Amino acid sequence: MITDLTDRYVGATLRSIPENQRADIEAELRASIDDAIEARLSEGTEAKTAEQEVLEALGDPDRLAAGYSGRPGYLIGPEHFFAYKRLLAVLMITVVPIVTAIIAVLQVIAGDDIGSVFAETLGMAIALVVHIAFWTTLVFAVIERSGEKVPTSRWTLDSLPALPRQESATLGDTIGSLVFLVFAIAAIVFSRNVSPVTGDTGTPVSFFDPELWSFWFPYFVVVLTAEIVFEITKYRVGSWTWALASVNLALNALFAIPAIYLLTSEQIFNPVFFERIGWGSEPAGDGTLVMVAVVIIGLIAIWDVIDGFRKAKK
Predict the structure, then answer these.
(1) 113-116 LR contacts (CB < 8 Å, sep 24+)
(2) Tens digits of per-residue pLDDT, 80-115?
(3) Where do the structural domains in the chain lie, given as residue ranges?
């Protein structure tokens, strides 16, 4: 050859070929290059130019090597991509919100302040998303290169899904939610001055700690009012959407996390109320009332979030 281009090209191709295949592939590749150059020489092309044209036509040696060795030049190919996509979506919309909610509740129970709970929960959610995406992708990339196939059932016409239907926001559900929210706001507002228990002067003894009115009760009233706006908006839109499900997640977190924090830090009940009814200074004496309330609030919030995303997916 006039130059060392062919040797350099062959060397670049063989470097990513398994050792036991190199001899055969080198012989085949050199023969192919020589034949192509000879064809151009017979057409009157100069030797140096013919060699350059042939090698340029072959293209990137790494891509050529992948073709020779049967090694895919992509991370996840079309055969496995849709199974990968479906699994990743399921993990993201189920594992991430459930685990994040559990971690937030455990942190609140442990007595962490609200700022720390929000910051650490957000960081954990981001880390969880990254880990799920990384490890799922890695597993499918290994499957792609191992030649194994993800077991799937044979597709038939019976596999076609039903026509998608939207989970509509009905008037009945909306009215029910609005009645509950208005009742909750009224319960907070009237709890300050309405109580079946009275003090020595005849004034009502609030079931909740009066100190909550300095910040937390106004905060909860604002969150519940936002819930009312959300329910009306959802009804006007007509059905659940991903955006509405995300807002629903945020509203549940804004209510449930502070509520659980106040319960577990013994800030929500008025000890005077329980002293007057003979339970001592602690609710139910052994904290049973607190734990029941925490479990109920946590389960309702988690279920409502999951149900919202489930309906949005439909």
Answers:
(1) 113/261, 114/257, 114/258, 114/261
(2) 777 787 788 878 877 777 777 677 666 666 666 666
(3) 5-69, 78-152, 171-313
